[in-house]
Amino acid sequence: MTLPRRFLALCFVLGLGLGSAFAGLPELVETPSLEARVAAGELPPVRERIPDTPLLVELGGEKSPGMHGGELRLLMGKQKDIRQVVVYGYARLVCYTPEFDLAADLLQSYEERDNREFTLHLRPGHRWSDGHPFTSEDFRFYWEDVATNPELSPGGPEAQLVVDGELPQVEFPDRYTVRYSWSKPNPYFLPALAGPSPLYIYEPAHYLRQFHARYRDAEELQQIVDDENRRNWMAVFFNRDRPYKATNPDLPSLQPWVNSTTPPAERFVFERNPFYHRIDQNGRQLPYIDSVAINIASGKLIPAKTGADESDLQARYLRMDNYTFLKTAAHRGDFNVRLWQTTKGSHMALYPNLNTNDPVFRKLLRDVRFRRALSLAIHRHEINQAVYFGLVDESNNTVLKEGPLYRSEYQSAWTEYDLEAANRLLDELGLEQRDDRGIRLLPDGRPLEILVQTAGESTEQTDVLELIHDSWLEAGIMLYSIPSTREVFRNRIFSGDAMMSIWSGLENGIPNADTSPAELAPTSKYQYQWPQWGAYYETRGQSGEPPDLPAAQELVELNDRWAAATSREQRRRIWQRMLEIQEENMFTIGIVNHVPHPVVVNNHLRNVPKKGFYDFSPGAYFGIYKPDTFWFDEARR
Amino acid sequence: MLHYILRRILTMIPTLLIISMLVFVIIQLPPGDYLESHIAELQSQGESVDEKKIEFLRKQYGLDRPLPEQYGLWLIGMLQGDFGYSFEYDLPVTDVVGDRLFLTVLISITTILFTWAVAFPIGIYSATHQYSWGDYGLSTLGFLGLATPNFLLALVMLYFANVYFGTSIGGLMAPEYIDTPWSFDKLVSILEHLWIPVIVIGTSGTAGMIRRLRANLLDELQKQYVTTGRAKGLPPGRLLRKYPLRIALNFFVADIGNLLPTVISGAEIVAVVMSLPTTGPLLLSALQSQDMYLAGSFLMFLAVLTVFGVLVSDILLALLDPRIRLGGGIDK
Predict the structure, then answer these.
(1) Above 90 in pLDDT, residue B298?
(2) Which B residues in the span 230-249 are in contact with A, Cβ-Cβ below 8 Å?
(3) A265 to chain B: which residues are within 8 Å by CB?
(4) Could you tell me if B89 lies within 8 Å of chain A, comparing CB atoms?
(5) pTM (2 decimals)?
(6) Which tops the pLDDT comparison, B103 or A85?
(7) What single string gives the DSSP state of each residue in B255-319?
(8) Above 50 in pLDDT, residue B330?
């Protein structure tokens, strides 16, 4: 720790020459909670802490510029959840705006050419939370000493950096410039940098070097390995290098709040980063709030604790069925409850397993008429009224109306409750025979009984399945729901034992043309409608089976064409085609979407939007609404 | 006697070996391993998973090795005092558990004292006043405590404590005292929270304790030496304390074997419901996420305590009650 301090002393001297760079910026205001440390000489004054060109956040409209101070209390269910502060903090190289466009954030600017060449410009004078400069050396360290180090990354760099097996060419022209280039387009690069769980292509080299075999004396490093009883130095390195998990208080960070508590603990405090790069129009360095305190409590108690006023900003671990309780509790407590919008393509969707082992069912499930009949026989309106107070939209598993790619037919095709049409389709399929219960018979004489696997985690799913059971019975189909645990649930789907499952729909229901459409095509074994096809794509044919439905093949092809496309218009057309295919084929059967999510906000906490999207990706939950601009009024400062 | 103790200690070794094998196998029984449940959890929150990274971690954690080898390594480690590594916390198991041990012991001992303080007088009263209104009334109360589901009682009490006393919900202290050094205020805050779990866990234990004490005491009270003592004019209180009560206490000593592990594990379900910072919820989440070394070492620790507790209570019983010692002699 001696090195950065000596460095700081040097910066004090050099800092004098930087005055001119601040022209055009508002006059800076020192943060009250840091004044003592500045006076004691432990920290440089604010103008030397921020980059030469800080990110100026103009607060207006619904948001107002605020004052420093206060502690934001959050509740989390597990110690691992402290990474949510890194998600909420949402300082990224590039980040999504509330309109879901990309903008430079930690970067001063970036240039992109045909999605092939990306030039990143850092902010001169930008520092890590310990005061050490943030430069292209930190990017070089990541690329040369971590991502392509055969011991630390035996499988090579992260998937988003590899295009058709080709590694990028990475250059560091000067102290503040980094260039990544590929010979083919890489549309995954920028979104990965902006992700809620981002791809870290920079690491605090000055800190991590001491745990790296290339920079540390082998004997000393071995000593650390032995002291900590680890397997090897890589384990020591990764134990320190956890920017996302935030478990290492010594790891320098660029986030608005930095963890100051060593786990294990029941309460974690994240302190403000004195070198943060954003300021407001009144010259106050962000974040406004001094610290974030997280109390760990059992997830099931969190709604009750929130209702007892123990959290200032809570959405995690709250559910729609807590809404009435929270509303009542708000009369006693000092908070208000808002409803934000979730952005899943479908809150719950049925996944017919096209790779199921049973040959008769496989043939049936692959027939689009059967999937359409199943959808027509779901009484979505009844589900909406009975389970969701009529507050949600009855819809396919598709994009939401707020998104730029929305078309009403995506939402409504085959979703009206039409038993007559469903029965007609089923008769057409040769399933006219029925047993004495009125259940249709399969060609081999077995009754048409569909087992739907659930992960056994929510009673909501079982309630919905119960309602679907009733309406499917009218169409001569028997539904049984099979609850299990999450691991068993997934393994049954992968192995093909499951014929159908229920899970949430598309992760991102408000994509734009630049968002990867991979979720719609068989590209991952975690897609429960075609796990084998997904595995085939993912492993480049080493496991799984190649897709043999023309529509699925077309989806794979479209997904590849999207990745290679050079214009936004091309990408938009590919998206539309893929959504059309999903609409025609009903590979997943959506039930409802647009489900609100309760967000509890303390009455003294300002700048939290009244309405918003609550989703992990790309919204980073509160992240895109910039929690560093939230502030407390006098009562809580 | 020495021979007896030695033999008991030697039989502990195969017992513990078998337990360790069972523990390891049972933890491994559910499909998949820690990393698979980890992936499942990440994905359910929409986070992506890099398969290459997972393979790397699997190697780092030694999860790619065959089961017997993993078991062997774990066993050898434990013999050397290394209880393995918690994947979930990325810390040695001892660090993870050690932190919570003190509060667990605090709750458990307070609960046991509470149970005794309630059960003892009631048990004696019910035995000496058998079939009286008092006996019926107090027994009913005890059974009510036994029959009320712990978690429900916990929730109800949490609610009322919060609404009427302003106590924060769950946990063992107000949030601002967590992980701060000890102070008077912190102690007060702990006491404010402590009574709820103590009463909740305690009520379920009292009924059993009352019934056992009552039955044991009734057995003794019928015996002739009591009648003789009474005939000779011993005051009833003195008579009760001096003879029947002492003999009736045998079951207390026999209970030590069960007591030791409960002191350490705390009441899991209540602890989970009330979100207490004790070891119970830790064990539960370790089992759920298949954090096998944390769960395994913890269960082994409990097993050792049980086996050891049984040994202690056997030795104490043999010392206390000559009839038990005699039985051992006949065996020889």
Answers:
(1) no
(2) none
(3) 99, 178-179
(4) yes
(5) 0.86
(6) A85
(7) THHHHHHHHHH--HHHHHHHT-SSHHHHHHHHHHTT-HHHHHHHHHHHHHHHHHHHHHHHHHHHH
(8) no
Burial of A529 (0-12, 13-18, 19+ CB in 10 A): buried
Q: In whole angstroms, what is the distance from residue A325 CA to residue A634 CA? A: 28
- The token pair at A66 is 């605020």
Half-sphere exposure for B10 (CA within 13 Å, toward CB) = 6
Nearest residue to A169 (alpha-carbon basis) of A186, A152, A154, A153: A186
Residue ranges of domains in chain A: 348-593
Q: Please state the three-class secondary structure of A72-111 as a single string.
A: EEEEECCHHHHHHHHHHHCCCCEEECCCCCEEECCCCEEE
With CA atoms as reference, report the closest residue to A435 among A426, A444, A447, A443: A447
Q: Which fold has domain B99-331?
A: MetI-like fold (1.10.3720)
pLDDT of residue A2: 39
d(CA A292, CA A629): 13
**Least trusted range by pLDDT, from A65-69, A173-177, B30-34, B108-112:** B30-34
In angstroms, what separates the C-alpha of B272 from chain A's closest C-alpha? 7
Distance from the A118 Cα atom to the nearest Cα atom in chain B, whole angstroms: 23
Architecture field, domain A348-593:
Roll (3.10)
What's the Rg (C-alpha) of chain A?
27
Q: Taking residues A246-258, report their average pLDDT.
A: 95
Mark yes or no for CB contact B175/A485 under 8 Å.
no
First and final C-alpha spacing in chain B: 12
Question: Positive or negative CA dihedral for A355, A356, A357, A359?
Answer: negative
What are the start-end ranges of the H helices in chain B?
A: 2-28, 34-44, 51-61, 67-79, 93-128, 133-147, 150-160, 184-221, 224-231, 236-242, 244-248, 250-254, 256-265, 268-274, 279-288, 292-320, 322-331
B255 at A interface, C-beta within 8 A: no
Mean pLDDT calculated for residue range A130-159:
93
A323 in Cβ contact with A598 (< 8 Å) = yes
Where helices occur in A194-276 by DSSP H, the ranges are 205-208, 218-227, 233-240
Nearest CA in chain B to A295: B175
Does residue A185 contact residue A114 with C-beta atoms inside 8 Å? Answer: yes
Q: Report pLDDT for A346.
A: 93
Average pLDDT over residues A368-395: 93
Tokens of A557: 């092809």
What phi, psi does B96 have (nearest 5°)? Answer: -70, -45
Burial A22-51 (b: 16+ CB within 10 A, else e): beebeebebbebbeeebeeeebbebbbbbb
| Amino acid (one-letter) located at B218 | L
Å between B179 CA and nearest CA of chain A: 7
Residue by residue, DSSP assigns A21-49 as: GGTTSPPPB--GGGHHHHHTTSS--HHHH
DSSP-derived pairing of the beta strands A291-296 and A71-76: parallel
Q: Is B147 on the interface with A (CB under 8 A)?
A: no
Q: Is A328 helix (H, G, I), strand (E, B) or coil?
A: helix
pLDDT of residue A5: 44
ipTM (interface pTM): 0.81
Report how far apart, in Å, the C-alpha atoms of B145 and of each of A109, A308, B150, B204, B260 are: 67, 27, 9, 5, 23
Q: Are A347 and A593 in contact (CB under 8 A)?
A: yes
Condensed to tens digits (0 to 9), the pLDDT of residues A419-432 reads 999 999 999 999 99
The residues spanned by each domain of chain B are: 99-331
Interface test with B, best of A228, A310, A312 (most B CBs within 10 A): A310
